[in-house]
Design brief:
This protein has 2 domains: about 180 residues, NAD(P)-binding Rossmann-like Domain (Rossmann fold, 3-Layer(aba) Sandwich), CATH 3.40.50; about 160 residues, Orthogonal Bundle (N-(1-d-carboxylethyl)-l-norvaline Dehydrogenase, domain 2). It contains 13 helices and 12 strands. The protein is globular, with a radius of gyration of 19 Å. The protein is an alpha/beta fold. About 40% of the residues lie in helices and about 20% in strands.
């Protein structure tokens, strides 16, 4: 097994599962997390990963509090940032001091974090990835995987032409213990296409306060989701990104733009959504935390404004999410009409 030292920064639902898979495969992995109770529970009892099949496995993972980065004696060769999009930059700044000069870093999260990471680590050490993996972590030390490794997918590639593309496999090999990894020359487009799916699924279902599958059963919500995804695709194409294959789905990139975003959502529903799968933003709200609405639908709005256009559906979703996070509105099915009215204004 490789002697490279690996850091997984952010060991919540996805990060802990990925780190556990790497550790079980024999890689030298250290996890870092900002939730003190979670770190202490893993130190005491290992990380418990529960699979959709009901199987449960405990892994004795080496894990540290964020404040213990200063105690690291030997630098890491590979760093995987598995945090919320809004946390990616400061976590990168924190771990940068213990990344080897010739080390590599990649972000495994939703949102367009690659530019922030390249700004911190330098393009020559930065890779980017689009991800499709689902899970939750409400109890310290316990992860509920909603997609097993054989159902997880990553598209990984160099940040730009200054990144060492020939070293992509160094990051891909450990990550393949946690899912399928496709090496791509255009991870920016892959991340934008994942954001198209995120715009369609995340805030619409979170604002209703129900699992994604249940949200689709609410009259009028599929139209809201498709409209949000279409706006995101228009922003992606306007910024220069391209429609690319996603999630290992053959032929999906050959669809016309007006069908592509809906096909992405269908793929997510078919392959990565159980009946009780709550999107990440709703999970955050249930924990009393900020969601990533600004980094998903908010980004669509901002990019459309730069292009001289508008994204009214995503704008409405962001405004509702801000009201929820300010305590002015609660997630609930009664919010459906607020969203539907934006698609069909009076």
């Amino acid at each position: 097994m490789s002697e490279q030292r690996i850091a997984v920064v952010g060991t919540g639902a996805n990060g802990a599962a990925i780190a556990a898979d790497m550790h079980e495969a024999g890689f030298d992995v250290t996890g870092f997390d900002q939730w003190p109770a979670h770190v202490e529970a893993i130190r005491a009892n290992g990380v418990t990963v529960r699979a959709p099949s009901g199987e449960e496995k405990v892994t004795k993972l080496d894990i540290r509090h964020l404040c213990e980065v200063a105690e690291v004696k030997r630098p890491f060769d590979l760093v995987y940032i598995v945090t919320k999009a809004y946390d990616a930059r400061w976590h990168s700044e924190l771990i940068k001091s213990v990344l080897a000069p010739d080390g590599l870093a990649v972000g495994l999260q939703n949102g367009m974090t690659l530019d922030d990471m390249a700004d911190v680590f330098g393009p020559e050490r930065t890779f980017a990835s689009a991800i499709e993996i689902a899970g939750n972590c409400f109890e310290p030390g316990v992860v509920e995987r909603q997609t097993p490794p054989e159902g997880c997918w990553f598209a990984l590639g160099p940040y730009d032409e200054r990144s060492p593309a020939d070293r992509a496999e160094e990051l891909a090999v450990p990550l393949r213990t946690a899912g399928a990894v496709e090496v791509t020359a255009d991870p920016r487009s892959a991340k934008w296409m994942k954001l198209v799916a995120n715009a369609a699924e995340m805030l619409p279902s979170a604002i209703l306060g129900v699992p994604l599958v249940a949200a689709l059963h609410v009259d009028g919500m599929r139209e809201v989701m498709d409209a949000a995804g279409t706006e995101a695709l228009e922003a992606a194409l306007g910024t220069g990104s391209k429609i690319v294959p996603m999630f290992g789905q053959e032929g999906i990139d050959e669809l016309p733009p007006e069908r592509y975003s809906a096909a992405l959502l269908d793929a997510v529903l078919a392959g990565w959504s159980l009946e009780d799968t709550k999107v990440a933003i709703l999970q955050d709200w249930l924990k009393g935390r900020k969601g990533e609405g600004e980094e998903m639908s908010g980004l669509v709005v901002r990019e459309q404004e730069k292009l001289g256009g508008e994204a009214p559906v995503n704008q409405m979703l962001v405004e509702l999410s801000r009201r929820i996070e300010a305590g002015e509105l609660k997630p609930g099915l009664e919010n459906a009409e607020l969203m539907i009215s934006a698609v069909h204004p009076a």
